[in-house]
Amino acid sequence: MLSMQNISKVYRAGLVETHALREFSLEVAEGEFISVTGPSGSGKTTFLNIAGLLESFTSGRYELDGRDVSALSDTESSKVRNEKIGFVFQSFNLIPDLNLFDNVDVPLRYRGFNSAERKRRIEKVLETVGLASRMKHLPSQLSGGQQQRVAIARALAGEPRFLLADEPTGNLDSHMALSVMELISEINQSGTTIIMVTHDPALAEMASRNVHILDGRVSNGHEQPQLAKVATA
Amino acid sequence: MFSYYLKLGWLSIRRNPLLSALMVAAIAVGIGASMTIITVNYVMSGNPIPQKSDQLYYVQLDSWDPIDHDNEGFEPPDQMTYLDAMALMKAGKAYRQIASNRSSLVLEPQGEGERPFSVTSRNTWADFFPMFDLPFLHGSGWDDSADNNLDKVVVLSKEINERVFGGENSVGRSLRLNGMDFQVVGVVDKYLPVPRFYDVTTGAFDEPAEVYIPFNIGVEYEFSRNGNTSCWKAPDGDGFEAFLNSECVWIQFWAELRNDEEKQDYMAFLNAYTQQQKEMGRFPRPLNNRLSNVMEWMEIEEVVEDDAQVMLGLSLLFLVVCLLNTIGLLLAKFLGKSGDISLRRALGASRGSLFVQHMIESGMIGLAGGVLGIGLTWLGLRGIKMLFGEFVENLVGLDWVMILTAIGLAIVSALLAGLYPTWRACRIAPASQLKIQ
Question: Å from A30 to nearest chain B CA?
């Protein structure tokens, strides 16, 4: 489903080159829940950005659903992001002056759904995350955990095949983090492929597989299946 | 999506009210300044009698000096001699024709204690009123016999009728002008052609006449001429009679010609007349007669003066300066929204859709600037009136065309100003701001 072969990403600032990813390779099968760990600056977020078509890469080959995405135009990659990928960010990234309904509505607008279809999907996903009764509230009227739930609802509204989560619980206390992780696990169990970057080993263990990145490469010793954890989740 | 973008634009404007207000104000000031001057130019260059401006022709006969002292390219004089005007009137070859000039007369009111005052008079012919579509409040113009019989008849403007007769129907009553009694035959309703096309030689934007009397009366009683008189050679002798027979030009001559055939026939008549005069030793220049319709005549006479056009250019430059300020403010505003833009890119917005979104927001700012600019334009026009007095009253009106022009200009200006900031905003990478929000 997701196949990265020898992906490299080099940031250039004048004569200075920074290698964020080096010959990075990874295969992700449909329905997997992968946690990505590694120290700060190891390339986790760069990997996630490239996986989500938010950034280009310098060399290598990346196929998503069997399609080489390296040569997609801006419009095409926007369409792929909109239709196949959902994003959950550490800082929620909700638009502060839009209520919950309108925040979840954002990706659906770009999808071109009619208003009835958008309304149906928004109500459904807000119901899923337990916030249907607060859809007219502004993000500032919610707790951090609730805001992250809205962000998850926004990511799910387009029924993506991938959910890319960058430290989704990084700004939450442990109680809220657990609640959000339970939600993410439920989403995975419903068939959505999830790639989650985290610093927290405990959260990483909730994934079916952990990929550890070190100096821009997959650290072989740390890529290991954790199916038993998933089974018990 | 258009309504969605409108909603986003409104939210964005509301999110930074001070910055938005500055942009609206910058556009409004530019629009206000430029529209003030554009409005004046627009009124100056308007068609004062659109229903028949292509049937009314100003007649120029080139009776002028064979030596081009002023190096004006041998243009025919912009007025006509008495000899020629009377010859053309007598020939009567046009559907309608009039000779006219302006005088200043003394009006003596009948009421006790009322003091005499001066009025401007248009000395003309019976055809003046139907030719130029003057609207009548009471009565009508005089007929041809009054022209020929030297009847002392007068048509009053609405203002003079109100001042002298209290606005009553004064037809049939007597009015004393320059010590002679005239009979009122008509009262003209409000008549303010802008420009005052029938006589631009005495100021295209001056008030219309206050009274109208037969041209021949003005000549018969040697009423003072209150207009331009130009002579390329001195009259042969002294006195008014010598002046009338001179080559001095002081009369405006108009002909109403209903179609091209009539125009061609009339030009042929003018040329034949000129040839005849040449044989008599007049018209020393080569044949160069002109028939100019109303708008052509306004162009020839440069009714919209050069300095007005320079002012127009300067005001548009000022608008450009305001737009440059707006570009800076929009750039600050749009780049300040980089987190929002980055997020929308991540959620599937293409550069194209973000471009449309931000151009619509620019257009909304332009619309608000245009509305405020109309208010400033109104103030600007009031300022011009206060500065230059009542005689520019006719130039400082703001009609629907100019209001819509102001709105359109503001929106187009804002869209142009928004192009670069929008382009920059659309270049924001989707991933650049998501981690730091």
Answer: 21
If you average pLDDT over residues B348-358, what whole number do you get? Answer: 90
> Could you tell me if A81 and A148 are in contact, meaning their C-beta atoms sit under 8 angstroms apart?
no
Query: In this structure, are residues A124 and A115 in contact, taking their beta carbons and an 8 Å threshold?
Result: no
Cβ separation A110–B347 shorter than 8 A: yes
The yes-or-no verdict on residue B273 having pLDDT over 70 is yes
Residue with tokens 């109309």: B374
- Whole-number Cα distances in Å, B284 to B22, B60, B281: 66, 15, 7
Structure tokens at B247: 């080559």
Of the listed ranges A103-117, B144-158, B170-184, B299-313, the least confidently predicted one is: B299-313
pLDDT tens, residue by residue, B216-235: 999 999 998 888 898 988 88
> Are the Cβ atoms of A81 and B352 closer than 8 angstroms?
no
Contact flag A95-B350 (C-beta cutoff 8 Å)? no
Predicted confidence (pLDDT) per residue in A98-135, tens digit: 899 999 999 999 988 889 999 999 998 888 888 888 88
Mean pLDDT in residue range B227-251: 90
Letter string b/e over residues A101-136, b meaning 16 or more CB atoms within 10 A of that residue's CB = bbbbbbbbbbbebeeeebeebbeebbebbebbebbe
CA separation, residue B247 to residues B61, B221, B387 (Å): 12, 21, 40
Cβ contacts of A223 within 8 Å, gap of 6 or more: A209, A210, A211, A212
Q: Using CA atoms, how far apart are residues B232 and B61, in angstroms rounded to an integer? A: 14
The CATH code belonging to domain A31-53+73-232 is 3.40.50.300
Contact list, B437 vs chain A (CB under 8 Å): 89, 91, 93
